[in-house]
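User: I would dearly like some help making sense of a protein record. I have put the entry right below:
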Amino acid sequence: MNTFETLREIIATKFDKPIEEITPDATFESLEIDSLDTFDIIFDAEEKFGIKVPNDEVDIKTVSDVVALLDRLRARSEEHTSELQSHHDLVCRLLLEK
């Protein structure tokens, strides 16, 4: 799932914006999206990607700022999931050995 394309779709649908206006360098101000609406976009992205954006990490001005933030959090989430799977596999192996 491409982060930029997904975010672009969220913005276009939610705010009835032409898709070609939503570029990585577009600012939310240029898209006439205020800070409250920006949080709404982030909430939708959290749902879509199954992640949680910490409040202290929301310093964004452009679409690419949000993409970078989401990609970073998605990578962290995938690392965490992989780590949990490794622990799960280890526990299963230990139980099977008994």
